[in-house]
Amino acid sequence: xxxxLLRRLGVMLLTTLCLTFVVFWLTNLQxxxxxxxxxxxxxxxxxxxxxxxLEARGYxxxxxxxxGEWLGVVPGFxxxxxxxxxxARCLDDGMTIETxxxxxxxxxxxxxxxxxxxxxxSDIISIRxxxxxxxxxWVMILMVPSALLLGVLAGMREGSRTDRALxxxxxxTTATPEYVSGVILIAVFASSAVGLKWFKGTATSAMEDANxxxxxxxxxxxxxxxMGYIARMTRASMAEVMxxxxxxxxxxxxxxxxxxxxxxxxxxxxxxxxTVIMLQFPxxxxxxxxxxxxxxxxxxxxxxxxxAGNNDIELLLGVSVVSVIVVLVTQLISDIGYVYLNPRIxxx
Amino acid sequence: MKEPYDGPILEIDGLSISFFTRLREIPAVMDFxxxxxxxxxxxxxxxxxxxxxxxxxxxxxxxGRNGRIVGGAIRFKGRDMADLSDSELRQIRxxxxxxxxxxxxxxxxxxxxxDRQLMEVPMLHEGISEAxxxxxxxxxxxxxxxxxPERILKAYPHxxxxxxxxxxxxxxxxxxxxxxxxxDEPTTALDVTVEASIVExxxxxxxxxxxxxxxxxxxxxxxxxxxxQICVMYSGEAVERGSIEDVxxxxxxxxxxxxxxxxxxxxxxxxxxxxxxxxxxFPLPHERPKGCNFGPRCDYFEAGRCDAGHIPMFDVPxxxxxxxxxxxxxxxDWASPPTIGATHEKGEAxxxxxxxxxxxxxxxxxxxxxxxxxxxxxxxxxxxxxEARESETLAIxxxxxxxxxxxxxxxxxxxxxxxxxxLLDGKNIEQIPIEKRDTKTIADVQMVFQNPFDTLNPxxxxxxxxxxxxxxxxxGKTEADRHRRMLELLDLVKLPREFAGRMPRxxxxxxxxxxxIARAFAGDARIVVADEPVSALDxxxxxxxxxxxxxxxxxxxxxxxxxxxxxxxVRYLSDRVMVMYLGHVVELGDTAQVFSPPxxxxxxxxxxxxxxxxxxVKKKHIVLEGDVPSAMNPPPxxxxxxxxxxxxxxxxxxxxxxxxxxxxxxxxxxxxxxxxEAEFVTMEPVIEVRTEDx
Amino acid sequence: xxxxTWAEIIxxxxxxxxxxxxxxxxxxxLSITFKxxxxxxxxxxxxxIGMIGFALVMFWIFTGIFGAMDLIVTHDAxxxxxxxxxxxxxxxLRGAEAxxxxxxxLGGDNLARDVFSRTIKGSWIVVQIAPLATLFAFMVxxxxxxxxGYYGGKLDTLLTFVANLVLAFPVILLFYLLVTPEIVATxxxxxxxxxxxxxxxxxxxxxxxxxxxxxxxxRTPLLVGVLAGMGWLYLSxxxxxxxPLKVLPRxxxxxxxxxxxxxxxxxxxxxxxxxxxxxVRGLTLDIKTRDYVAAAQTRGEGxxxxxxxxxxxxxxxxxxxxxxxxxxxxxxxxxxxxFFGLGMPPESPDWGSTINEGRKLLTIYxxxxxxxxxxxxxxxxxxxxxxxxxxxxxxxx
Lengths: 348, 694, 397
Ligand SMILES: Nc1ncnc2c1ncn2[C@@H]1O[C@H](COP(=O)(O)OP(=O)(O)O)[C@@H](O)[C@H]1O
Ligand code: SF4
Ligand code: SF4
Ligand SMILES: [Mg+2]
Known about the structure:
The complex is a heterotrimer. Helices cover about 70% and strands about 5% of the residues of chain A. Chain A contains 13 helices and four strands. In chain A, the strands form two sheets. Chain A has a two-stranded antiparallel ribbon. A two-stranded antiparallel sheet of chain A has the order 3-4. In chain A, helix 5 crosses helix 8, helix 5 packs antiparallel against helix 10 and helix 7 crosses helix 11. The longest helix of chain A is centred in the middle third of the chain and has 36 residues. Chain A is elongated, with a radius of gyration of 26 Å. In chain B, about 30% of the residues lie in helices and about 25% in strands. In chain B, strand 13 and strand 14 form a beta hairpin. The longest helix of chain B is centred in the first third of the chain and has 18 residues. Chain C is built from 17 helices and two strands. Chain C is mainly α. Helices cover about 70% and strands about 0% of the residues of chain C. Chains in contact: A-B, A-C, B-C. Chains A and C meet through helix 1, helix 2, helix 6, helix 7 and helix 11 of A and helix 6, helix 7, helix 8, helix 15 and helix 16 of C. Bound molecules: adenosine-5'-diphosphate, iron/sulfur cluster (2 copies) and magnesium ion (MG).
């Protein structure tokens, strides 16, 4: 098991490095940098000015070196210009060049500074991530049990009327992306024109004080889309298990139908959906971004849109790293959980 | 609770079962009747698809959503099963009637420990406590002769071998001491020696617990060994019923007779007494003929009578409980010998075409597929040496995992040898992978595969597949040439030429296997490796396909390497036999030499394990303990030492420490064993044909 | 003029769809009559679910096609009519000229354009891009997945790693990174297009070569012909005046894809391909253990022949099912792109962009956002039902 874990961690690390490098490279392409120079400096800079602006701040150096600095494995950039002013990557307010640390990258906890929010990236991310975690927690609480229930009920008697009805529900919800279901839900429940006005159409107030009225719609919107998918997986897996020989064995032993489902079928049927739930995370992130934008809930997804839309390089990098790590960690958990759920894979 | 009852345990009376599909009703069982008396074992035989399993599931009332009993009655201990409520039915299932079926691994819940699965039965039906149930489980697991019951109870199914799993399934069936046990092909998925031990166990337990049995099998030999009564089914109907002796020795139905004539019994011989195949094909349920279902394939068919209408079961006068579904059974001369097809001179073996010298194939595998871990060496083939001549059939015999298929792969060039040489016409080919072989070599060495459902590409017509082989072997200059040659090949394997345009799914198993043979001979192969070519086919088709292979061999002077685990067929068709165990050749010799003493202890056990459907044959009973060891962890010394009953006769611990040398017993006969000359002499034959019948 | 009531709007809308109804009726009548002779496609008409799904999908395909022919639409999808801003469904067009349709059947949006016509025009964009992008993703996935599954080893490890890399990347982030104007300016999407679109060429080349290798007289002219044709199409596709990849001179360039659309196309193919790769790889691992593959090996067939002619045709069932599902997923992705205003031209009537515009005033005006939302929902639902029906039918018999 230890070897397995180590190997998985190794692969995960390598993946993170590759992906962050790709993001780093894409965000540090010349056009992005020029845009940065103009927004930070002056909109009417000439090309030559832009070049020297970038030069002075160390942007005009090889990409690998910049990546190393950002990561914190290469000493930070220092530029003593002719006029005596100092430009250094690791120089914070109230520091002199002597007291500033040599390394200041992600590994040292220096995630950079957001040009849009004028705040430290690490602070933004921790606050926004917390808000999104709250959202996701409720999504999971709503989505997973109802999806499993839906799937198990549909799959235990394949082809029955219950199955047809429940399957239609789950197919419909998978066919409804968040930006569609969100719009419909707002129209029905929150619109001031004709709607029922049960819930609020924005979730901004839920950031401080989440309650049923302002938080239910966003949670439901994300949960619905994921729910159909998990429910269908569960149904397929359950239906397959119910036709297995050992279920027939149990039936011919005289076990009653509820007991067959609970004792014999359930554990086997949940192995496949478990992996699916965990692999849902990259998708859920999609939903989070859409829903946070739609409901104006200023969480992690909303931050991503702001960073990407405003060319906020350091913030975008931070957001990317975090989301990639979240995805990879869930994959790791799914691998380990699979091993525990499935006795056929022995861990020697 | 269970009341004592002394009438027939199970009475099936005129049972008809249909499956309802979108297109039509499929009558799977029609007018089927059988009685099982207390303590009696009734065998149900027939080819696959004839409705045996459907009868069993009908008794259990578990026909799925689209199956329905459309006529007749099933009475269990006198009570009509149709009158039972759901909960009464549940009380009978598992408690009074238990069922065992083919795939042991699939019958056990993979995510549940063995003890839970066993204890569930009595806890459910008798309401006993967990502790009591567990002690009962321990007892029954010991009864089915599993070593170390405590450990087994704590295991998951996947941690046991196939044989052990089937024992657990049997144990589970016996947990509540049922009155009736239904076994649906319980040993088909197992190796012969394991099958023999399971059959032995079932017989013993039946006696010990006084259980009645309904034993379903396609193997007449197995039924002979286990049952008192037999019922032969054909295409949804019982065609003959009676005691084993009556049906085996005085059969009263043409199908039963044809069945017996198509299986290789001792005494059959490919040249002097060839098998008689049943012509034609098994009818599909919705394409049954009017009148007698067997009519189109029956030698005694008489228009106007046999196809007039429904044929009932007739009691056979004189033989109590024997009956037959044939209108002409009184007129047929049952004693007249079969009209034997052309007999042949034994073909002369020609020059040596293939020679193996000390061939070794080792694989390096990761110890654990998922987590990697250190590499282990699996010795799939250890020092294989033999030679094969033109027009000769060399049989390679052994159970699963003995290295038969590895050997075939190395010969074909799909793998390269670790050591040793393979000489084809004196040229070394053991290190040349298939991509580097020239077309001639490839076309010369071809293969026929085991599983007919897998051997043809399902999305290409039969003709195209053969033409592709011709293209690859560079035969024919134009497309038209190849098309003509393809049709000739279809003729060669006795398939109608229209089949060229068919898709494989429109063909029956035997027909697919014929196409496979045609494809193998497309480039005029000189050496054909046939990997269990008939073991997945029904007995009546087996004979036809075997004969076809023999005939082509005679015409083309092919060297046939016939891989099989079925010694009956091997004795019937091979000239020489090579017995393998765990990668070693343990015995090699002429067919006569291998099948008569002295033999290697493993050969002896194999011979004893093969069921023979002949009441006049007496077999010595040798049951091997345990399973074939895994090739990953072979035992030290003699590979067979863990199961050998002769081991004690070898002085010292020679068998445990030293791999025995290959010993020459007679001209062309070699045995790999430490036993002394004197011990070999004491060996007795395993199979004896009783003289009074011969 | 009085605004129309819903009882008047609905018949009028149904009437507008008349060409679609006729086409659908004809298609179904023909298909059901000959269903026994149409193989896999015919079997679809045995399943109610499958038929409903197929009907929904074909509805939108016909709508897209006829809409592009200006048959169903009532107004120019981009034209703004004075006084129609945010007007409710059924509002009469002020000062309608003769020959002009006198109503906005589903109202006007915040730029006073006809919602009904925009929704119809939007379907054409989806119906064009989604299946084509999915097809390309399948080409890439199949061409890489087959060897990964068949040969295994280092190649498999590498390709699987790369596929997982793409899969671990949050889709939305990828879109933001790829589809922004700055990155488009560097030409990266064009280079990606050049790489991704070369796969159909490889695929066709290897497919034909492996099949006709034994008959050089047929193979060589065939290969030259097919590859030249496809090559030309390929070069026309990737070469575009506005991008760094300008390989073909103007007079040889058959067509230009609008820049934004190409980028969207590339992004969608890029995120779909790894999943297809994984599916194909899994199927290959399964099918390569069959005896007919061994038979092909023992008669000395090359790897590509086995992969493309022995394995791939037998994997078609699950692949067709996934193809339908994936078109649905692609439709959702396209909508997502539109929703974030990525890639699509600003005036574009595609459903995602329209929903995005409509949502801003959603709590007051519902009608601009709901029609495209329901359109997208019904198309994706249709694709899902179709896939379900196909799966059910392919499992039977
Ligand atoms: N669920 C089912 N639906 C339709 N036909 C079936 C079903 N189960 C069995 N059959 C048909 O019933 C016949 C008898 O099958 P079976 O009882 O399994 O035969 P056996 O056990 O002798 O091999 C076969 O023709 C088979 O195709
Ligand atoms: S009834 Fe006629 S066709 Fe049928 S088995 Fe008897 S003789 Fe043959
Ligand atoms: S060498 Fe010993 S263990 Fe091996 S077969 Fe001979 S007697 Fe048995
Ligand atoms: Mg059966």
